[in-house]
Amino acid sequence: MTGVPASATGGAGSKQAPAGKLGAAVDQASLWNVANLLTMVRLLLVPAFVVLMLQNGGYDPVWRAWAWAAFAVAMITDVFDGHLARTYNLVTDFGKIADPIADKAIMGVALVCLSALGDLPWWVTAVILVRELGITLMRFWVIRHGVIAASRGGKLKTLAQGIAVGMYVLALVDWWATFRFWVMAVAVVLTVLTGLDYVRQAVVLRRKGLAAERAAAAEASARRPQRQEGER
To answer: Cα(96)–Cα(93) distance, rounded to whole angstroms?
Structure first.
């Protein structure tokens, strides 16, 4: 006696799905968790932002306010989807790939639109985008040696970029326009400084990883003659 109803254990009258199909169903369902849904929403907001931003030539204050709303929602979901995924163990392969793409996409299109409209110098857009792309590639370069965790400076940089770009998306005038210039200046400085710090961390991590690999290879090489001697 197990104390479990027959219907729950596959007894008479019950129908059980094959293990393979059941496993596939579970895996498929896990994709549609709240963290991934927020990431998908952020991806959909990218083209929506571009459409709203460029309405009426890109200089209509009302349409730009709507574009700011789309940008703000995207930045907010960026905070929540990662937190939910880590807190409730909702991390998936889709999320690992789509989340950073969504992050870079919304920020990238916002910067490009602002520069194309003449609101933001192209060199600012280039500095931020090159830094973001470079750090992403660098993480893949050292990933077999370890993971470079996001630092406080990196999180502060992201916050500064989001606030600065959001202020540029809005059609601000007078002293607000001056204020947003200085916020963007802070964001650019943090972008450069944190980028250099990530490069330093990557170099140190790679050196340690290579040193550990050489030590392991040397130890394995030293053991090989001992094994051969024992076999004789």
So the answer is: 5
